[in-house]
Design brief:
The chain has helices at about 1-25, 35-40, 45-75, 75-100, 105-129. It is mainly α and about 130 residues long. Helix 3 (about 45-75) packs parallel to helix 5 (about 105-129) and helix 4 (about 75-100) packs antiparallel against helix 5 (about 105-129).
């Protein structure tokens, strides 16, 4: 189960990687008002990196809940770890494709990551039933 917990940590940190890229993509970052600074940027890379950050935050809660649900329900730890690793790998690719502006691949890996979350939750529900 340790692997899945490390995956939760990595998934929790991913939004900060993407926002770091967003802030590094524009001129003269202003830490006194970072949200307004990001809103003023006309750099598409900064905007996409910020969007990747927001999407990573949105995906995190369901993923963390799914891992914990699966563990609490007694799903096979190897299966939980495998799905958690796949989720994290896909979410990393999601951010890379988002920042690069590769929409079709971004959507494909997003769907794969959500499928991992759904699989974890369904397995947890089936185990409890």
């Amino acid at each position: 189960m340790t692997t899945a917990y490390w995956c939760i940590l990595v998934a929790a940190l991913l939004p900060y990687v993407w926002v770091g890229i967003a802030k590094g993509s524009g001129p003269r970052y202003d830490n006194r008002d970072p949200r307004a600074w990001l809103a003023r940027q006309d750099n598409p890379r900064a905007a996409r990196a910020n969007a990747a950050q927001l999407n990573a935050f949105e995906a995190f809660a369901a993923f963390a809940a799914a891992v914990l649900m699966a563990q609490a329900a007694g799903v096979d730890p190897a299966r939980i770890s495998m799905l958690a690793l796949v989720f994290v790998g896909l979410r990393i690719l999601h951010g890379v494709f988002y920042i690069a502006g590769i929409a079709a691949l971004r959507s494909l890996v997003w769907a794969g990551a959500i499928a991992c979350v759904i699989a974890l939750m369904v397995q947890a529900a089936q185990k409890i039933a």
